[in-house]
Design goal:
Strand content: 25-35%
Number of domains: 1
Strand order of the largest sheet: 4-5-6-3-2-1-7
Radius of gyration: 18 Å
Structural class: alpha+beta
Helix content: 10-25%
Number of helices: 1
Order of helices and strands: HEEEEEEE
Distance between the termini: 50 Å
Largest sheet: 7 strands, antiparallel
Number of strands: 7
């Protein structure tokens, strides 16, 4: 009986810690659920997941060619985390720039910080 109580307490504390970690690190845009993206500028993407939720993905520095690329963007994580986050990568191929890789600075759901989405969403890999 004591083992059952201790096991339940450990499970509950793990679940609370996971929820607190997710809240502390912002929203979870799951890489395998990304459906489409649209570049606002060379530092900002709006990403749509399969559940039609929208996220703002800020990049670290300018990502040259992002605004004018016609190719699909691919999202990678060097640590294989499920959620897109800082230091993850966005890769695409541009007609004049060639293959480009840009780094994620952060992910949020604050769409109020974006003036307008002026490009159609395109599918992602």
């Amino acid at each position: 009986m004591i083992k059952l109580i201790l096991g339940s307490a450990a499970l509950a504390s793990t679940m609370l810690a996971t929820a607190a970690f997710a809240q502390a690190n912002g929203p979870c845009l799951q890489r395998n659920q990304i459906f489409a993206s649209s570049a606002i500028d060379d530092r900002t993407l709006i990403v749509n997941d399969q559940a039609n939720r929208m996220y703002v993905v800020r990049l670290r520095g300018a990502c040259h060619g992002l605004m004018t690329t016609l190719s699909r963007a691919s999202f990678y994580s060097p640590t294989n985390q499920a959620c897109l986050g800082p230091n993850d990568r966005i890769a695409f191929r541009h007609q004049t720039v060639g293959r480009n890789i840009c780094f994620v600075d952060g992910v949020s759901t604050d769409l109020g910080s974006i003036a307008s989405v002026n490009r159609p969403f395109g599918p992602v890999n």
